[in-house]
């Protein structure tokens, strides 16, 4: 689960990670008031779950409360398109009004779980403010990494070593070390899966502050942290994914044109691979679960069809727990009720698959019944390309 920058900064403050003074606002009038209270130059920052705002007009400076109000008017209600939002962009309904920092230097600081070593890795760079992927490609020697043993947590020497690796002025070493220890504590105690401060700023008057904050939390741990689960902003999430989750369907929207309905996550991934193998892209990942009941199939159909990119549906179900003939009847019922107009390719394997094929072939809906997965994928790809 992602949260907004302003929420992340509130959490940071609780964990002793210094952040600029700021207030979240939803109207230009509130922005005026916030700027008056801060009483100096401010930045107005669009709050969306995506980075790249700076380059896309989502971050503006203002010198007076009047100017802050005007900038907030521009930002609030705008649809912000950044390289992370996709071409449709994100509607901005909140902005963070924050004291503007006099930046001396921008650093990068990130913590993430490294799957290869099963450890938390601290990634830091004296080259901040730009994307870390760019630094990694162009000047990898400017990236320092420190792996943390989950048993012992971060040692003070590891925090110092990381801070030393950033070529910092001596005056801020101690603050950066403390910030690293606090960020690590935050990461572990909240079950974060990613924490990124880019940029971590050294100001002209020698302060260290998190000027940006991007956090992801491990969804599987959210039940342990109701106060964090409350920070979820459903407006930032894909509506169809929320609806799918409410019906216990695992659905992830993608950008291709072959809608997939599969039971079992492994089979769903294999299905996506084979679609690509034959030359098309899947429109989604969708696992309807072991028991593909008529209601679940219908719900899954509804969700698939609400994506207008979907030009063909590929149903790939293994009838182990549920018999194929029951799935076939469920598919027919759902297709009739929803008046499905696009081609549907069906591959059913397992118990009673022959009976199922017969039922589908005899129905007055024009299903394409496939012999096996390769056949199904080929037929679905042909349907998309024709
Ligand atoms: P992002 O573009 O979505 O990652 O948003 P950031 O919060 O990282 O801001 C982008 C850039 O705007 C930063 O790298 C800074 O260069 C600049 N910026 C953000 N806040 C301030 C500020 O308070 N003062 C100054 N001078 N620049 C800022
Ligand atoms: Mn940033």
Structural write-up:
- With 386 residues, this protein is an alpha+beta fold.
- The protein folds into 3 domains: 1-20 and 102-237, 2-Layer Sandwich (D-amino Acid Aminotransferase, Chain A, domain 1); 21-100, ATP-grasp fold, A domain (Dna Ligase, domain 1, 2-Layer Sandwich), CATH 3.30.1490.20; 239-385, Succinyl-CoA synthetase domains (Rossmann fold), CATH 3.40.50.
- Helix content is 37%, strand content 25%.
- The chain has 13 helices and 18 strands.
- It has helices spanning 5-14, 28-38, 65-75, 132-138, 156-164, 170-190, 226-229, 239-246, 265-277, 294-305, 324-338, 353-362, 373-385, and strands at residues 22-25, 42-46, 59-62, 79-80, 90-91, 95-99, 103-114, 119-125, 143-148, 192-203, 208-210, 214-217, 250-253, 258-262, 284-287, 312-319, 344-350, 367-369.
- The strands form 5 sheets. Strands 7, 8, 9, 10, 11 and 12 form a 6-stranded antiparallel β-sheet that branches. The chain has a 4-stranded antiparallel β-sheet with strand order 1-6-2-3, with helices on one face.
- Helix 10 crosses helix 11.
- The longest helix is centred in the middle third of the chain and has 21 residues, at 170-190.
- The radius of gyration is 26 Å and the shape is elongated.
- The two termini are 39 Å apart.
- The relative contact order is 0.09.
- The model has no long low-confidence stretch (mean pLDDT 94).
- The structure holds guanosine-5'-diphosphate and manganese (II) ion.
- Guanosine-5'-diphosphate binds next to strand 7 and strand 10.
């Amino acid at each position: 689960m992602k949260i907004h920058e302003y929420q992340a900064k509130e959490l940071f403050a609780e964990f002793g990670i210094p952040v600029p003074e700021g207030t979240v606002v939803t109207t230009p009038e509130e922005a005026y008031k916030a700027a008056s209270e801060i009483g100096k130059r401010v930045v107005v920052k669009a709050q969306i779950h995506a980075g790249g705002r700076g380059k896309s007009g989502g971050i503006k400076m203002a010198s007076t409360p009047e100017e802050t109000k005007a900038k907030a008017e521009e930002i609030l209600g705008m649809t912000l398109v950044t390289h992370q939002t996709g071409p449709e962009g994100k509607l901005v309904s909140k902005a963070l009004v924050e004291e503007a920092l006099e930046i001396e230097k921008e650093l990068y600081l990130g913590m993430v779980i490294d799957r290869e070593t099963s450890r938390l890795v601290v990634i830091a760079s004296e080259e901040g403010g730009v994307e870390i992927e760019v630094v990694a490609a162009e000047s990898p020697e400017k990236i320092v990494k420190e792996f943390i043993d989950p048993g012992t947590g971060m040692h003070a020497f590891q925090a110092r070593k990381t801070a030393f690796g950033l070529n910092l002025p001596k005056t801020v070493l101690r603050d950066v070390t403390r910030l690293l220890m606090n960020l690590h504590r935050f990461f572990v105690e909240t079950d974060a899966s990613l924490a990124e401060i880019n940029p971590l700023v050294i100001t002209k008057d020698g302060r260290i502050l998190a000027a940006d904050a991007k956090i992801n939390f491990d969804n599987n741990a959210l039940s342990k942290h109701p106060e964090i689960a409350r920070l979820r902003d459903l407006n930032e999430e894909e509506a169809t994914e929320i609806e799918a989750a409410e019906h216990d369907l695992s659905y992830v929207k993608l950008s291709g044109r072959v809608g997939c309905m599969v039971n079992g996550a492994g089979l769903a991934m294999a299905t996506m691979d084979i679609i690509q193998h034959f030359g098309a892209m899947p429109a989604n990942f969708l696992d309807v679960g072991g028991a593909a009941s008529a209601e679940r199939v219908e719900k899954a159909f509804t969700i698939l069809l609400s994506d207008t990119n979907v030009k063909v549906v590929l149903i790939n179900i293994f009838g182990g727990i549920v018999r194929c003939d029951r799935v076939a009847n469920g598919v027919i019922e759902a297709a009739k009720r929803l008046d499905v107009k696009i081609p549907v390719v069906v591959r059913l394997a397992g118990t009673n698959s022959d009976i199922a094929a017969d039922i589908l072939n005899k129905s007055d809906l024009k299903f394409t019944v496939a012999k096996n997965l390769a056949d199904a994928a080929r037929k679905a790809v042909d349907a998309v390309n024709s």
